[in-house]
Amino acid sequence: RKRMLLCVGSFFGSTSDAEWEEYRTGIKKAPIPTYVLGANDQDTVRYFPDVSGCELAENITYLGRRGIFSGTSGLQIAYLSGTESQDEPTAAYNFSSKDVTELKTSLLSTPKFKGVDILLTSPWPRDVGNFGNSPGEIDTKKCGSALVSNLAASLKPRYHFASLEKAYYERLPYRNHIVLQETPQHVSRFIALADVGNTSKKKYLYAFSIVPMSLMDPAELVKQPQDVTENPYRKLQKEARKAKTLVCAEEEPACQFFFDLNKNQGKKRSSDGKERGNSQPKQAKKPPQPTGPCWFCLASPEVEKHLVVSIGTHCYLALAKGGLLPDHVLILPIGHYQSVVDLSSEVVEEVTKYKSALKEFFRSKGKRYVLFERNYRSQHLQLQVIPVPLDLCTSEDIKESFIVQAQEQQIELLEIPEHSDIKQVAQPGTPYFYVELDTGEKLFHRIRKSFPLQFGRFGGLFVLGVFTCCSFSLLPSALK
């Protein structure tokens, strides 16, 4: 087993020239092979004579501006020296988007690239705290480097070490794949170290052993720990995921791909109302009748009709009884349907019109909506629509709130690809919880055992602080 010391952050710090001279001339010697990153400021550039890397003293090696260090055991260490700069050409102590792109390209072009074992950077990656445990006083939405986030998202390091914020932070491991949609991959761990010898006695040394990825059993490599979280750089990966959305198995302009989560292969159905080999159009399915009194079938005497706002051909809009806000509304089918998955195409079309009208209405009032459905222990579909002031939170804040709350209750809330539909991930009769933002972004949880019935109302939304006074106006033109 080989030992080495990897240094991130500013290696020289306040070291006096006299002390360093003793190492440079061989009077003192580093006890084990030591690998360091380059300068983070103009004052220390003079210690690094060769930007491509060189030996600074016996057992002390400067890795270089950027690149890959491969050990004899097969261990792969990616590194990026300096701090982020938007200027070109960059100073000797900076890196730019060009450096990040070239480093990514050199690795991603490698056949069957899965990731690197270790990534070393001086700055923290921006947004690394998303969906994870708290980094204390460090605001990861404001500090750190977006370029480093981009690099980490692409290189998928098993361990990512950084410094410069003078704080210790060991983030919960995060995924590098989309559950149920991509082949499982290894998790990544981000660890930030404080400065050496700090008076607060924050941790500045992290000891660990690692077997190179190339030598590991594939099944062992992709094991997911219980505390794994969503990837904090999801926004950066969104564009890459667009190309991987579910598409037709064949090149047909009017078909759609449906799949069963319990099967390995999907079942393709034509969306033009005809089965292959059968020229007879399908008969429209009548909604099933309720087995007992239903509070939401519009023809039922149990419906509290004073709450109804708008009635369409297949759906109606009603104020929520005991709503979170005065303008908390429900979109409901007039007939008896249990979930969105059970709806006929005409009902889906009218639900879409209501959502579009509500989006336009709420945006005119300076709000955005979040919609959710709980298809569990409920017999009639209720789409809960709650408006949130635009200046209170972004769509990313809403998603993060739901995901964080889900993780705290051991609920796996997954993002559905942008151009996909709830019917593509759930079959009729499947219990699930479903969130949709007015941007079209969707989150999904397949309920397998039990589920907290008030999760949508008091789990994800309570954290957003949406309990504010809002006004509601009727929608006379909801179906325009």
Report on this model:
Helix 2 packs parallel to helix 3 and helix 7 packs across helix 8 (455-464). The chain is 18% helix and 19% strand. It has helices at residues 17-24, 97-108, 146-155, 218-221, 234-242, 345-364, 395-408, 455-464; strands at residues 5-7, 34-36, 54-57, 60-62, 66-70, 76-80, 83-84, 94-95, 118-121, 159-162, 169-170, 189-192, 255-258, 267-270, 308-311, 315-319, 329-333, 367-375, 383-389, 414-416, 432-437, 442-446. Strand 13 and strand 14 form a beta hairpin. The protein has an eight-stranded antiparallel beta sheet, sandwiched between helices. A six-stranded mixed beta sheet has the order 5-6-9-10-12-11, with helices on one face. It has three domains: 5-242, Purple Acid Phosphatase, chain A, domain 2 (4-Layer Sandwich); 245-283, no CATH class; 296-464, 2-Layer Sandwich (HIT family, subunit A). The chain is an alpha/beta fold and 480 residues long. The radius of gyration is 28 Å and the shape is elongated. The chain contains eight helices and 22 strands.
